Amino acid sequence: MKLTFLGLGVMGYPMAGHLAKAGHDVTVYNRTRARAEQWVAQHGGRFAPSPADAARDAEIVLMCVGDDNDVRAVAKDALSGMSANAVLVDHTTASAKVAREVASAAGARRVGFLDAPVSGGQAGAENGKLTIMVGGDAAVFAKAQPVLAHYARAVTLLGDVGAGQLTKMVNQICIAGLVQALSEGIDFAQRAGLDPNLVLDVIGKGAAQSWQMDNRGKTMVADKFDFGFAVDWMRKDLRICLDEARANGAALPITAIVDQLYARIQARGGGRWDTSSLIRLLKD
Q1: Which of 145, 186, 199, 233 has the most C-beta neighbours closer than 10 Å?
Q2: How far apart are alpha carbons 90 and 116 in whole angstroms?
Q3: How far apart are CA 33 and CA 206, in angstroms?
Q4: Which residues on neighbouring strands pair with residue 207, listed in sequence order?
Q5: What is the DSSP letter of 120?
Q6: What residues are labeled active site?
Q7: What is the model's pLDDT at position 227?
Q8: Cβ contacts of residue 251 below 8 Å, gap of 6+?
Q9: H or E stretch including 119?
Q10: Nearest to residue 94, comparing CAs of 123, 78, 118, 60?
């Protein structure tokens, strides 16, 4: 298929790479041109100077950018170059509100739209093992799903436009509480004189097991925080969660506390540390 990928960050770069490896004709766009040139040198295809140029004649346009404002700007430009009956897929973690805005703009041009945020981090993108949460029309989803499967272990339609973003919010709410609990547990084990790595090996075989424990527990013990998803991005995501909760009446007391703990990490200069760095706050 003729595909376009907009946004070649730590997630988008390998995701687009999987599409090229699968044999698709891929055009890319990135705000920093050197990054797009690097991608083409590695994977082939071509790069374009703008989202509109990149999206022209593409059957499916996929994007993974920064936040709501980025989504609005990039989608507006891309849609100006897209043909009727094409599909725009947004992998950005953004608000359900902006997903509905873009869907409306896409519909006016007879372009299908899916909000499709991902979970699995940089490693998941590189290994093609992302979990993709999708909102949109079932017929549009059926067209895009085989393409998304190139970099995913699960691609699930959860409801109408916005449902993908709302599900990603649930994901981030759950992660926030898990990381803080894991931080407290490891710190407790260390202060109690236990071998924390041995403790993690044991409890990781029981009801306390989680992805966070398996993939971040021992790096937290080692005081290493240069893995995966950055605190700056998590705070952006939690802001979206808390804004949505204010609108729908959900109570997120633990999420609100963890958001403020991450603010303290940022104040220490740890905005680019990964989210497991919460444990640093317990060491003083």
Answers
A1: 186
A2: 6
A3: 48
A4: none
A5: S
A6: 168
A7: 86
A8: 245
A9: strand 118-119
A10: 118
